[in-house]
Structures are given as structure tokens and as C-alpha cells.
Amino acid sequence: MPAKVVLVGADGCKDGWIAVRREPGMAPSVNVFASFSALLKAVPDDAVVAVDMPIGLPEFSGKGGRGPEALVRPLLGPRQSSVFSIPSRSALYADTSDFTTVEAWYAAHRRASEVARATSDPPRGVSIQAFGIFSKIREIDTLLIARPDLRGRIFESHPEVAFRRLNGGEAMQLPKKIKGSVNPAGMAERKALLCRHGYAMDFLDRLPPRGAAADDFLDAAVMMLIAGRIAGGTARPLPDPPHSDGFGIPVAIWA
């Protein structure tokens, strides 16, 4: 049964957030927003948003991260390296500066890693990849702390978990990227799956909006399908039921 609400799939990108949106009975559209708040202002108050970004932060991080990461990695085979371990909230907020130099960026990464090691068991620093999305994680975290009403509308997912769920429980065989460059065969594998779930190939083949990459576009597209599963009651969280962080924010990856 088609969802009766606006569905949004979102992913972080170079210029902010890329969002694939579908209104009931309409073809999907895609836009880039400078902030997550701007994205939310552009959609109705009852829109369901699935986003490729960790939601809910631990005060202390155990083996494998917050919990959901350790649950989904074994499902993904060779794609499991795409799931980053997320450290404690204090590590996420250890340095919130706007970095003007590469040296300052690496210094902030070292500070975050120091805090992360002090708030994890076994002690673990922060990967460069995870640190690169800290500001995006904080954007959503501060919104959900300030506005508990959003917690029933914004859901964490993960593209490779989503593709696996839509592929009958089989992980994607090919990577989207190889050594930082888009892998055309991996992109084609995912586009074919998205088309089996209702997308038109000409939509997926278009150039992504300025400020977003081609893989960001596909990730947002699959997130929109997960938003539809959530709205329709067929999505499932890992863990089930979700955990909660110290602010009561649900912690789970949905697909």
C-alpha cells in the first residue's frame, strides 16, 4: 500500500545534505540543503525521514561501537567496512571548531581520539572516516535533544544494510567505490536493485545536484525506500527493540 505521507531519504554530502523526496502519488525529486534544519523546514511536519547518519550517542563505547554497528556488520560480508564505530558523545563534542587548516583538523582528530580512548573499553581512538562526519552527527544530535517530537519522524539507517534488506537478505557483491573513486559496476548493481523497487532509471542516471556526489545520490535514494518501509510498518530495527541513549533518543539502524 503506498505511503500516505511524504517520504525523505537523506545523506550527508559535501555541501550539506542531499535529500530524495517523494510525495504520495508523485515521482521522486532530489535537492541539496545546507543544513539538516533547512531540510526539515522544506518538508511537512509529518514527513518520515530515513538518514544515513548515526543517531543516539553512548556515554561510554563498548566493543564494536554503540551496539547497532556490531549487529549489522556480520550481515554485510565484504561491505562491512562501510559501518563505522561511533565513539562516546563526549568524544563527538571534544572539539566543535570550524577548521581553517588541515593541521587544525588533524589536531582536533587527535583530541577527539584522546577522549574516545578514555571513554571506551577496550580503549579505542577515532577513525579518520568517522571523524569526517562528526559535524553531521552533531547536527542531528542537537536537533533531537532540543526537539523530542522529531524522534518519531527521523530514523537512522545505513545504505548497505538497506540494500541488503531490499535484496532479499543478500549483501551487495560489489563496492560503490574503490580507492576513493566511484566504481561503475557497483553503482550499476545498486541502480538495478533500486529500479526493481520502483525507481525509474532515468531518475537514477541524472547528475546529482551540485554539492553532492553520485554515491551520495544513490544512498539518499535507498534511504527514501527505507522511509517508506518505516511509514508502512514493514521496517525492522537492529537492535529490536531499539536501545536508548542518555537523552532518551532511540539507538537502532532501521531497514
Note the topology:
Elements: E1 7-13, E2 16-22, E3 29-33, H1 36-41, E4 48-52, H2 68-72, H3 89-92, H4 102-118, H5 128-131, H6 134-146, E5 154-156, H7 159-166, E6 177-178, E7 181-182, H8 184-196, H9 201-204, H10 214-232, E8 237-244, E9 250-254
Parallel strand pairs: 1-4, 4-5
Antiparallel strand pairs: 1-2, 2-3, 6-7, 8-9
Provide structural commentary.
The protein has 255 residues and is an alpha/beta fold. The chain has one domain. 36% of the residues lie in helices and 17% in strands. It has ten helices and nine strands. It has helices spanning 36-41, 68-72, 89-92, 102-118, 128-131, 134-146, 159-166, 184-196, 201-204, 214-232; strands spanning 7-13, 16-22, 29-33, 48-52, 154-156, 177-178, 181-182, 237-244, 250-254. The protein has a five-stranded mixed beta sheet. Strands 6-7 form a two-stranded antiparallel ribbon. Strands 8-9 form a two-stranded antiparallel ribbon. β2 (16-22) and β3 form a beta hairpin. α8 runs parallel beside α10. The longest helix is centred in the last third of the chain and has 19 residues, at 214-232. The radius of gyration is 17 Å and the shape is globular. The model has no long low-confidence stretch (mean pLDDT 95). This is DUF429 domain-containing protein. It comes from Mesorhizobium erdmanii. Pfam families: DUF429 (PF04250).
